Amino acid sequence: MYFERYYLLTLLSPFTSVLEQYHITLQKTELIASINSIAGVILFIPIIGGLLITKFGMNRVGLWSTIITMVGCLLIFISFLKPFGHVYPTFSYITLLVGQFIAGLGLAPIMVVVLRMQLHWFKGKEYDIAMGITSSALRVGAFLGLFLGPIFLNLLGWPFPMLVPLILILIVLVLYRVYLRKCKHVSKKKPELHPAKVISGQSLKDLKSIMKHVMKERKFWLLSIIIFTYYGSVFPFLVIAPSYFNIYYNLEMNTASFISSILPFISVILTPIIGLLVSKIGKPLNISIIGSFCIPIGFIALLLHLPLVIPIILLGLTLSLTSLTIWLVITRLFKKEHYAVASGLLLWWFNAALWIMPWATGIIIGLSSSDSHKSPIAAIPLLLIASIVLTICQLYLLYLNKRNKLNLNTLNKG
Fold first, then answer.
1. pTM
2. CB–CB of 108/39 below 8 Å?
3. pLDDT, tens digit, for every residue of 343-372?
4. Fewer CB near the last or first residue (10 Å), C or N of the chain?
């Protein structure tokens, strides 16, 4: 279900010309994409979601999340229906923002559910492989958003592409109900005694002290910067990629959207292979650093207007190499009893990146030109700076690994 998060992130990207009739500029498109992550930041869902999961059970919270997401997707679709979008563009825009926020509210706890299930089901090398498969599935959402949107628009017309997220979440809801019926012994299983156990493995009274301990460590804040700059550099670009390729590489919009979909598609194919590779040889930090170097080089290639195949390969590789291995490094950096708490806190930075950076790039695009549809290149310097900071922090973490013998490149022994 969590792939829906990335689908909604790129939902509007292929439809710049269509959105003009709703007075939605490229700047507003970035803002709309960022709204989806606000709930995970201001409501601190990575921690609260974990508490809810243990108090009410993963199955129940998963069902609630699915229903809330469905409501948000319904509002997104309604916002583009006639006469709202044409006669009342302000109403349409506000309804769209509310729908994105509600969908984000429903989706925010799902990552905690995924993390909890993987921690419970997989150990050691199996965990690395499972993370690779999960990360690949998440990128399917971004791929489908960029790839299917123009196809549905050509075949079924507007606003059917805005209905696709609702259809997908309805399918998830049906499948989830089937799962609950098939696994009654799981759904009836009583949740753990302590609400904090889902994120810490400890009793509730220990949660505060563990959080303080984790947040006092320099490595936690270094990882926070790494996660913020990684997700804040690559994913905002996915939102503007079709417009960028359309304007600066003179591609027809449908073609530009298809080319953009290659970025997450590379990740869909390679990420499980990377997870398997890490399970065999270790070295997640080294692999993550290689991926980090690909980002600034890819953005520089875009600014220099080098052949499109170069930035596509570079940015596609980083979605495979870095997005997975960052989280595999975390499993080796923190003590086993602290890992889930650290992950919950770092997920907050993940949400913050997907909120703040698209919003910031949207503002820059809006300020750079009176015609905000024609200036996506203005956002690249900010994303380039973020990627450089990411690479420097990754190299510093490698230095700390060698100096302090943190064993971040070892095999995962569980």
1. 0.84
2. yes
3. 778 888 988 998 999 989 988 888 876 554
4. C
